[in-house]
Automatic annotation (TrEMBL), chain A:
Its EC number is 2.4.1.52. Residues 304-466 form the Glycosyl transferase family domain. Keywords: Glycosyltransferase, Transferase. It is an enzyme of class 2 (transferase). InterPro entries: Glyco_trans_1 (IPR001296). Pfam families: Glycos_transf_1. This is Poly(Glycerol-phosphate) alpha-glucosyltransferase. It comes from the Bacteria. Gene3D superfamilies: Glycogen Phosphorylase B. The keyword Membrane does not apply. One of its GO terms (molecular function) is poly(glycerol-phosphate) alpha-glucosyltransferase activity. It comes from Periweissella ghanensis. The gene is tagE. Coiled coil: none annotated. PANTHER family: GLYCOSYLTRANSFERASE, TEICHURONIC ACID BIOSYNTHESIS GLYCOSYLTRANSFERASE TUAH-RELATED.
TrEMBL record, chain B:
Transmembrane segments: none annotated. This is UDP-N-acetylglucosamine--peptide N-acetylglucosaminyltransferase GtfA subunit. One of its GO terms (molecular function) is glycosyltransferase activity. Pfam families: Glycos_transf_1. The lineage of its organism: Bacteria, Bacillati, Bacillota, Bacilli, Lactobacillales. It comes from Periweissella ghanensis. Residues 318-476 form the Glycosyl transferase family domain. Keywords: Glycosyltransferase, Transferase. Its EC number is 2.4.1.-. Gene3D superfamilies: Glycogen Phosphorylase B. InterPro entries: Glyco_trans_1.
Length: 493, 495
């Protein structure tokens, strides 16, 4: 998206889910409001609304002689009648006390509704509750207060609710009913495809959100299946391995897509080989490096912390970080000053089972002074300009943005030689080292060798700095431009 | 403005609604601007009011007022042209005259119920969720616009009612919460009313607010005809005048003994907390005197309830057909009518009893039907459904029969008198020696038992001259209840 933004092309970033802070979040990711089209915004008729804030004084409770108590510790105002009956709790953001939500109480003291105020200064959604605090429905409003979207829920578990149906009033006054959010999203995709009169190019990124919709659009479009991750469960057996559940439906219906995009040429080839119905396939790297970024002066190895190894990987079974810990243990046995910093999120699956396992392994291997879990960091550049080696022990990986980021900052990757990312981005003994998957001893030896031969490490680092040329902005944009040109050809054919 | 404050205009109305309509029409004819106010939400109100002969500017409903539809021009919202149904996406199947189904892939998504008396017009739409339960109902007003939308708690009880103006803006939101297995309205929010929200705890609070809004626009006289609305009317801050009209007996006999006390329903009228009515009006001097004796501070006046028009369409002097017109309700003692008929049948085997009106409940209807069989009156009793227009039914009636044990006046009896049909009734307070004088315009039995009344009827009809005399006097009584007298009496109390 940032690339499209920078190239200033007529693109629209379409998102499905409602979020109170949607625009702030996506603006932070570099998506401007004029290119952002959220389904809820669209039906709430608030695509073009200026940001604004709601304050306590803007709220109208419809009751005179109210008393207000500021509970700063809870970041809320308590609103009471003269007789102390609770009218509302007004939750605010601490910095300037602008209103985020209002919990409303009826004459009998029941919490019956919570209004959510968005960053445009009006009530966007209200949650309606039962007498025993179960969410029974959500209603979304236009800026004028028209209720345009209703969802009904029932309690399906101690903490879960299940949507039982959606009711949409569109801007023409038609009332549509949907069993699921996915069905509503399909309606929306068709609506916006028909809204823009030209032949549209629709790129499906979050695949299962709309893969069914893309295979049966009411109006033809150039449809792109954008595969960001591994499409098989074992990249070593691409012709026979089970399909990744997220791509299974789309790939089995791949004839309905105009183009399949993956991030590496090997993955593209694997898909074309396995699915003869593929109409067209294109390789476009998932990341790119801007010219400004490439022009930054390199940091020499002797300016970096000796023995600093980093990993940029989610703490999940897929990242196989326990292998990396064993590698580091062996390296540490020979070079005491080696350290490993692991960046990125921990996977919450099974109540953070993998993080618990990794933390236990650190203790078992007595690496408490060596390994640190750094969590997610917004700007990795300082850490990467201080590191010498990037360790990757995943048994399979897709285009790895962390790896590209490491190369861009001259960090030398040492990785298992797996499809797709590591083998696509690393040339063994040139800009890094590829190790046979599972060969912990070999990887440890390689890292020890590199640390002990800083001149070679420096040479690899120089090559690492040079690698991203293939992934510079112009090249990646060129790949997209080709795809868009193909879309036009298909339409005219 | 003179407002007559009531609850509703029903499909089936009682004498109180007829009295309000007559009073309002008489006032307007006499250049005394008047309207009926109704409180309850009723999407058939415009139809019912038209049935009652009311013009749109002769009544004002609270919900209509806030929904900005007091002068909405009715149109026929045909289901075939309803814009809310996306016909390119769904199928609409017109099942029968009562409903249509909105379907997708054969599944019913919503049911459109059609208006009972307006062919193919939308009455309401029930939208179903994935479980087949109703997740929302959109109610359409008889005049054609979507008026109110209801949503539900998971157990199916009403959770919210939202009222709209015809442009689709929310104007009133009512929240419902369960209490003892029933939904209770716990919050009433008037939205963006002249730019502001107003929150109320009850419909009565909202009603008081509404009455004050009317009175702020024009200081007015408010005549309340339903005692449970008295408190709201007394909540008007600076009315020109407040009047309570008592339409029936304000007294109730104690469960044991002969003592009488004020009915609970009339306590807000006669013993209000705080403000009092400027005037309490009743139909008879007798009731006025009783109230005055018990509540010396109360300003009480006799003012006519209703007027009638004499119709020369009846010359019957033989006992053939007994008529009752009115609510078929326990307080009207319909069982008593049957017993009188049964007693008459021993002398007049072919005697006919015609009951015209609507039953108060289906249970009561079943009870009456069973009693007709038990008394072997199947061939003697005819039930005629309610209609506004009663003309014609009096033409062949021998006598009008009432066995009601309490009446404020007896509006149905007055109508009968106007046709020259004498009234036979029990000699109860406010009727005997007021509207009905035994031996003059009717037959009153001091004993409130069917045999006694039947015997008096038999005796009376033994002499056609007596009956003819009763008929003449009946019309003379009716002559005293003319619109002019009603207006004059009101003018005296309104100054």
């Amino acid at each position: 998206m940032q690339l499209f933004e920078r190239q200033n092309i007529a693109y629209t970033y379409v998102t499905r889910d409602w979020s109170q802070n949607l625009h702030q979040q996506l603006n932070g990711l570099g998506v401007s409001d004029r290119h952002l089209l959220n389904m809820f915004d669209y039906y709430q008729q608030m695509v073009d609304v200026q940001p604004n804030k709601t304050f306590l004084a803007d709220l109208d409770f419809g009751i005179k002689n109210l008393r207000f108590v500021d509970e700063q510790n809870e970041a809320r105002f308590i609103v009471q009648r003269n007789d102390e009956r609770l009218v509302a709790r007004v939750n605010y953001q601490k910095d300037d006390q602008h209103v985020t939500s209002v919990e409303r109480f009826d004459s009998a003291g029941n919490l019956y509704a919570i209004d959510f105020y968005n960053q445009r200064g009006f009530k966007s959604m209200t949650q309606w509750y039962t007498i025993d605090h179960q969410l029974r429905s959500e209603v979304w409003y236009t800026p004028e207060g028209r209720d345009v979207l209703h969802a009904t829920y029932r309690q399906s578990g101690p903490t879960e609710v299940e949507a039982l149906g959606w009711l949409l009033t569109d801007p023409d006054g038609h009332i549509y009913q949907f069993a699921t959010l996915t069905a509503l999203f399909e309606h929306f995709i068709n609506a916006i495809n028909e809204l823009y009169p030209e032949f549209n190019t629709l790129i499906l990124d979050s695949v299962t959100s709309a893969d069914e919709a893309f295979t049966r659009l009411r109006k033809p479009a150039y449809t792109v299946l954008d595969i960001h991750s591994m499409h098989v469960t074992d990249t070593g057996q691409p012709a026979t391995a089970l399909l990744n559940e997220h791509y299974e439906y789309a790939l089995l219906n791949v004839a309905h897509f105009s183009n399949v995009v993956t991030t590496t040429s090997k993955q593209t080839a694997d898909i074309v080989a396995r699915f003869p119905d593929v109409q067209a396939a294109t390789t476009i790297p998932a990341g790119y490096v801007t010219p400004e970024r490439q022009q930054q002066p390199p940091v020499k190895m002797n300016k970096r912390e000796f023995g600093k190894i980093v990993a940029i990987a989610n703490i999940s079974p897929n990242s196989n970080l326990s292998d990396l810990l064993h590698v580091i243990k062996q390296v540490h046995n020979q070079i005491q000053s080696v350290t490993l910093d692991i960046y990125s999120y921990a996977d919450y699956t099974n109540n953070y089972a993998e993080e618990i396992k990794i933390r236990q392994a650190i203790i078992d291997l007595a690496l408490e002074q060596v390994v640190q879990l750094k969590g997610y960091v917004e700007d990795l550049q300082p850490a990467l300009e201080n590191a010498q080696i990037l360790g990757i022990t995943a048994h399979q990986a897709c285009f790895d943005l962390g790896l590209l980021e490491g190369l861009t900052n001259g960090v030398v990757p040492v990785a298992y030689a797996v499809d797709y990312g590591p083998k696509a981005l690393i040339t063994d003994d040139q800009n890094g080292c590829l190790i046979e998957p599972g060969a912990i001893d070999a990887m440890a030896n390689q890292i020890v060798y590199l640390l002990k031969h800083q001149r070679i490490l420096q040479q690899f680092s120089n090559n690492a700095y040079a690698t991203p040329a293939a992934f510079d902005e112009a090249n990646v944009w060129h790949a997209w431009a080709n795809l868009l040109a193909h879309a036009k050809e298909v339409h005219q054919a | 403005m003179i407002y007559s404050v009531g609850e509703n205009m029903y499909a089936f109305n009682s004498g109180i609604e007829f009295a309000q309509v007559q009073r309002t029409k008489a006032f307007n004819a006499a250049n005394m601007p008047a309207k009926i106010i109704t409180r309850q939400y009723n999407r058939y109100l415009a139809r019912n009011a038209a049935w009652m002969g009311l013009q749109p500017d002769e009544y004002l409903n609270m919900y209509d007022y806030f929904q900005k539809v007091t002068d909405f021009e009715p149109f026929a919202q045909n289901v075939r042209t309803l814009a809310a149904i996306p016909r390119g996406t769904y199928h609409v199947r017109y099942t029968d005259n009562n409903e249509a189904h909105i379907t997708e892939n054969g599944q019913v998504l919503a049911t459109v119920h059609l208006l009972p008396d307006k062919a193919d017009c939308v009455g309401d739409i029930e939208y179903f969720n994935n479980l087949g339960d109703t997740m929302m109902t959109a109610y359409y007003d008889w005049r054609g616009f979507r008026s109110m939308v209801e949503t539900y708690h998971p157990d199916g009880l009403v959770a919210s009612q939202t009222y709209y103006d015809p442009a689709g803006a929310q104007v009133l939101a009512v929240t419902w919460m369960p209490e003892n297995g029933e939904s209770q309205a716990t919050s009433w929010q008037l939205l963006n009313y002249h730019g502001q929200n107003y929150t109320f705890d009850s419909e009565n609070q909202l009603f008081t607010f509404f009455l004050n809004e009317l009175n702020d626009a024009l200081a007015s006289t408010f005549i309340v005809d339903r005692p449970h609305l008295a408190t709201s009317v007394l909540g008007i801050d600076t009315p020109k005048r407040t009047i309570a009209y008592i339409h029936d007996s304000h007294l109730q006999q104690a469960a044991t003994g002969n003592a009488y006390f004020v009915k609970g329903s009339y306590q807000p009228v006669l013993q209000p907390r705080g403000r009092e009515f400027n005037l309490v009006a009743v139909a008879t001097a007798q009731q006025a005197a009783q109230i005055k004796a018990q509540f010396p501070a109360c300003v009480v006046r006799q003012v006519p309830t209703i007027y009638t028009q004499v119709v020369d369409d009846n010359t019957v002097t033989e006992l053939q057909k007994i008529l009752y017109v009115g609510r078929l309700a326990p307080d009207k003692n319909i069982l008593g009518l049957l017993k009188v008929a049964a007693a008459l049948k021993t002398h007049y085997p072919t005697i006919q009893l015609v009951l015209k009106g609507y039953f108060a409940s289906s249970e009561y209807e079943a009870q009456i039907l069973a009693e007709i069989q038990a008394l072997q009156l199947d061939d003697n009793v005819t039930l005629v459904p309610y209609s506004v227009d009663d003309n014609g039914i009096y033409a062949d009636a021998s006598v009008f029969l009432s066995t009601s044990l309490a009446e404020g006046l007896g509006i149905n009896m007055l109508t009968s008198l106007a046709h020259g049909v004498p009234v036979a009734c029990y000699g109860i307070a406010y009727t005997q020696d007021n509207l009905i004088i035994d031996g003059a315009n009717g037959i009153c039995s001091d004993e409130c038992n069917p045999q006694a009344l039947a015997q008096k009827i038999i005796t009376t009809f033994e002499n056609p001259l007596t009956v003819m005399n009763l008929k003449v006097q009946a019309k003379q009584t009716a002559q005293q209840y003319q619109a002019e007298q009603l207006v004059t009496a009101w003018q005296q109390v309104l100054h």
